[in-house]
Amino acid sequence: MSTVEKVAIVTGASQGIGAGIVRQFLAKGYRVVACSRNVATSSQLNLVEVTGDISQPEIASLVIERAKEHFGRVDTLINNAGAFLPKPFTEYTGSEFTALLQVNLGGFFHISQKAITEMLRRGSGHIVNITSSLLAEQPLKALPAALTAITKGGINTVTRSLAIEYADKGIRVNAVAPGAIRTPMHAINTHGFLATMHPMGRIGEIQEIVDAVLYLEDAAFVTGEILHVDGGANAGHW
Ligand SMILES: NC(=O)c1ccc[n+]([C@@H]2O[C@H](COP(=O)([O-])OP(=O)(O)OC[C@H]3O[C@@H](n4cnc5c(N)ncnc54)[C@H](OP(=O)(O)O)[C@@H]3O)[C@@H](O)[C@H]2O)c1
């Protein structure tokens, strides 16, 4: 199918995995609405940028409005915005709990509700949630991160739940569960340590996550899938 007319929304688009997804969708001929709290002004014809916190319902509404106003529809939503805060469980503060839930769950919830409402009108659509392999499904003694487990584990679960709820309405819902990926999220001096968290002995690259998103986007018979891109970490112990 030609992608010329397709419209994708990408959250958390200013750097890292989100920026990589935006670049690749634009290269494939999609029109893209990108949201982050800091977004550089861009003159690209097929790109509309919305500056704001995607966990806020009014920003989620604005992103959908911009997509409709500029491009007329919403085909694909990539829920990528997220935060990571590893620490021992008893050291999390109440405000850290609220902040992590807001971005990792609120950042998914409001925009997904509004995007699905639009997709239902047209009878088609696709959502890809960027979750986490290691911290949500293969917890590591060396890297405690319970708030990531709560939030990303919840997103894995709701991916399957929404896939079932909307399978017969033309809307697919999938997830990509990355291992540790070389993005600005991780200081360079931690990369050696992070490499040891995968059986393959290296960290992942942004393009490897982008490729997984693109596979799911084109995989018309795949829904409810949590695609692990994690150097084998999800397969077991090593
Ligand atoms: N890198 C990894 O090893 C790894 C592993 C597993 C899962 N993931 C997941 O992959 C996703 C992307 O991670 P990354 O490594 O690319 O992270 P990153 O380099 O820290 O980038 C995060 C992006 O999200 C945006 N963002 C954060 N909070 C936001 C908010 N409230 N509203 C809108 N945008 C927001 C940031 O931009 P602004 O600061 O400008 O808002 C930035 O563009 C996250 O969901 C993360 O949990 C990453």
Molecular structure report:
The chain is an alpha/beta fold and 238 residues long. It has a single domain (3-179, 205-228), classed as Rossmann fold (3-Layer(aba) Sandwich), CATH 3.40.50.720. The protein is built from seven helices and seven strands; from the N terminus they run E-H-E-E-H-E-H-E-H-H-E-H-H-E. The protein has helices at residues 16-27, 57-71, 94-122, 134-137, 146-166, 191-195, 206-218; strands at 7-11, 31-36, 47-51, 76-79, 125-130, 171-178, 226-229. It has a seven-stranded parallel β-sheet with strand order 3-2-1-4-5-6-7, with helices on both faces. Strand 4 (76-79), helix 3 and strand 5 (125-130) form a beta-alpha-beta unit. The longest helix is centred in the middle third of the chain and has 29 residues, at 94-122. The N and C termini lie far apart (42 Å). The model has no long low-confidence stretch (mean pLDDT 95). NADP nicotinamide-adenine-dinucleotide phosphate binds next to helix 1, strand 2 and helix 3.
Please name the defining characteristics of this protein.
7-stranded parallel beta sheet; 7 helices; alpha/beta; 7 strands; globular; Rossmann fold; binds NADP nicotinamide-adenine-dinucleotide phosphate; 238 residues; 16% strand
